[in-house]
Amino acid sequence: MLITPAYAQTAGGSSDFLVTIFPFILVFAIIYLLILRPQQKRIKDHRAMVEAVRRGDTVVTAGGVIGKVTKVLDDSEVQVEIAEGTRVRILRSTLSDVRSKTEPAPKEATKDAPKAANDEDAKS
């Protein structure tokens, strides 16, 4: 008997493929739910915030500079006043936060104001 019992045993049964890959699927699902999905939501919220910037908003750039938007130049640039009389052009993508938003003028008030003035003139 030259063959030892350790070598004479039959090969181990192969486990099911699904049981083998299940831990990897579980780890990927946890990473997606805890890391990737919240990051996508943050990116979407930041993009909406940057697109909604308008004149008069106080903003913070990625470098930490705080200023007031004086002019929206185009879809990718805004003009920001960082000190009295100092205006710089910056990319919207470098905005990290909008500190205070200005309220838009109500459309009814702007439309009714000239109309009300004309009504008063007509009554006189």
UniProtKB/TrEMBL annotation:
Compartments, record wording: Cell membrane
Membrane topology type: Single-pass membrane protein
Keywords: Cell membrane, Membrane, Protein transport, Translocation, Transmembrane, Transmembrane helix, Transport
Transmembrane segments: 17-36
SMART domains: YajC (SM01323)
Any single GO BP term: protein transport
Pfam families in the cross-refs: YajC (PF02699)
Region (Disordered): 96-124
Gene Ontology cellular-component annotations: plasma membrane
Oligomeric form and interacting partners: Part of the SecDF-YidC-YajC translocase complex. The SecDF-YidC-YajC translocase forms a supercomplex with SecYEG, called the holo-translocon (HTL).
Family the UniProt entry places it in: Belongs to the YajC family.
Name listed for the protein in its UniProt record: Sec translocon accessory complex subunit YajC
